[in-house]
Design goal:
Elements lengths: L9 H20 L4 H19 L4 H8 L7 H8 L2 E4 L12 E8 L2 E8 L5 H6 L7 H17 L3 E7 L6 H5 L2 H12 L6 E10 H5 L6 E5 L3 E3 L3 H8 L10 H8 L3 H6 L5 E3 L10 H21 L2 H13 L16
Helix pairs in contact: 1-2, 3-11, 4-13, 6-8, 10-11
Length: 331
């Protein structure tokens, strides 16, 4: 029985539990109920298609935060043939909210870094809920610089609500660490592929989010601020602003479809029916296929062209209008 069930998933879960119970009784009693099971399974598929074809932005937020969603170490385990984790920033310490190391896929070696959340309360506390501290970003940059020296492509998995906002992180320079990562990632002379696998939250995401190709899972989100924080700022005097988080989620345009429309990402990676939390293997296979699709094209570019295109793709993000001085008169 699944315990982490979202409200809109409940009808599907109840049907699946009913099917499991019928199968159990069938095994015990030896009665043929195959037709009944087939009809119920077909109904489950129709119901899932109906639910997941009409998700709201807030529903996507809930899926992106699902506690059973695969995290960076899950993708590494399922995609790569070998992985050696490396630790520490050589300046302060090791931050478990970001993991990284050397990975092999076939004959190709990569450096892989990514945010890592936790499954239970103990691991979540250990991983700081995926909110990295300055030493996490500095560790990631150390590994990426090492990758450049060795000529290995870099793969970044982004899944964080935000960078750690505590006083100790501020004292150790969290803003500087994120800004330095962004600057240095623009100049790394090896291919960089970024996968937004869950939450892409604010500067915490950008600290690992600069790449030649940015890919985003179907139910992931990418936003300058969490919907709850946006609601608290915009409607702080309107009773309980947190209740307006779904409204803020719509206004923030944080879905994968929005990100593709605005040119922030290059591809939406389809998830298994019902979301990545329902099939780790299916989600990992889709991510692996996307990486293998984009890597040859990025690798084929000359270094100077790759750096120029990486810079220009981020310069093009955003929409603005130039206003003549006369239009500002009296403002």
């Amino acid at each position: 029985m699944r315990t982490n069930v979202l409200d809109f998933e409940r009808p599907v879960t109840e049907l699946e539990e009913r099917i499991a119970e019928i199968k159990r009784r069938t095994a015990e009693e030896g009665v043929d109920r195959s037709e009944e099971i087939a009809n119920l399974e077909a109904h489950v598929q129709r119901l899932m298609d109906q639910i997941y074809s009409s998700l709201s932005p807030w529903d996507r937020v809930l899926i992106a935060r699902h506690p059973d969603r695969p995290y960076t170490l899950d993708y590494i385990r399922l995609i790569f043939d070998e992985f050696q984790e490396l630790h520490g920033d050589r300046l302060f310490g090791d931050d478990p909210a970001i993991v990284g190391g050397i990975a092999r896929l076939g004959e190709q070696w990569f450096t892989v870094v990514g945010h890592q959340k936790g499954r239970d309360i103990h691991e979540r506390s250990f991983r700081n809920f995926g909110s990295a501290r300055p030493e996490g970003y500095r560790k990631a940059l150390r590994l990426m610089k090492l990758s450049e020296l060795c000529g290995r492509p870099i793969i970044c998995f982004v899944d964080t609500p935000a960078a750690d906002p505590t006083v100790p992180s501020e004292e150790r320079g969290i803003s500087e660490a994120i800004a330095r990562n962004m600057r240095e990632m623009f100049t790394l002379r090896v291919p960089i592929l970024v996968v937004l696998s869950g939450e892409g939250g604010s500067g915490g995401a950008l600290g690992l989010g600069i790449g030649d190709r940015v890919l985003m899972l179907e139910h992931a989100i990418y936003s300058v601020i969490p919907p709850e924080g946006c609601a608290a700022i915009l409607w702080r005097d309107a009773g309980k602003p947190a209740e307006r988080a779904p409204e803020a989620a719509t206004a923030l345009k944080l879905t994968a479809e929005n990100a593709l429309h605005f040119g922030i990402i290059d591809q939406i990676i389809p998830e298994p029916r019902g979301g990545a939390h329902r099939s780790y293997e299916g989600a990992a296979a889709a991510v692996k296929a996307a990486l293998l699709r984009h890597l040859p094209a990025v690798t084929a570019l000359g270094e100077e062209q790759r750096l120029s295109e990486r810079y220009e793709r981020f310069r093009r993000i955003g929409e603005f209008a130039e206003i003549e001085d006369d239009a500002l008169a009296g403002v």
